Write the structure tokens for this entry.
Amino acid sequence: MTEKPMTRIKEGSTDYTPAGSAFMRLLKMRETGLILIILALFIAMTFASPYFLTWNNMRAMSMAFAVEGIVVVGMTILLISGGIDLSVGSVTALAMVIAGLLFLNGVDPWVASAIAIASCAGLGAAMGFFVTKVGLHHFIVSLALMVIARGLCLLGTGGRPIGLFTLPDSFKFIGQGSIGPIPVVIVIFVVVVVASDFLLRHTTLFRKVFYTGSNEKAATYSGINTKKVIFLTTTLCSTLCGLAGIIYMARFGSAQPTFGIGMELNVIAAAVIGGASLAGGTGTIFGAILGTILLSVVSSSLALLDVSVYWQDIIRGSILLAAVTIDHYLNKRRG
């Protein structure tokens, strides 16, 4: 008599537990929390400003975070490997300046862009060399390259923007055109995100990025060439900065030598908010993109609410500090 009810309870609990545990895991995921925060911001801003949920604002906001999101992808992969790059803003500007100057000197814009992206990749490779061969820290090397790249931008332009109004329409299409209602910038962004996420999840080489960031010594003892992994991730980050710079140039028809000042803070904040750890070994592309969207929504909201630019900087800095603090405590709990 007593066995039957007990059997029913056992069977019921067995049926319920997997669904319950899966739901709890979903709630605990960082991405789930970010999605809920973004939705809450969207709802609040819909009531706060009649201009927020308009096609023009959504298009402008999505194009802005899409190009910066390409840089975030590179930074996320680098952070997972245990590195960091403070030069992303300067390298993005340098790509514009190189391509712009070459175009004004008669070089085809596509060839000029390829040379600019290759030059950015070369800077990333130089950073990788100093980190892996010389033994310097990413922070110091990227800080030095940030100053060097910005100096090259100012030297090449005299500190003045370069007008590129004669760029052919076929080239400007990548920054200003649309495929149906979808801007080409968004299409390029989605391709970069999907390709990077696939490589991180399903290829042996990119899986080594996680092992290297988690414990470089252990990864080395297990046969992984960690120096090669760090070199490749550093080069990839700078290459994606070059691509972002070319898209910016095509979008605005100019090369701004002062562009990207402070971009490194936004990019690092987006990656850390999305779950990438400054200690290395953890992070997802999806989470980093959600972090980028969150910061973009916050920036757009502050602008629409006519908040002072100075307060915007304070708020962005506070968000970065909060993200790093949360990351620190999460690392302590894992430890």
Observations:
- The chain is about 80% helix and 0% strand.
- Confidence is low (pLDDT under 50) at residues 1-17.
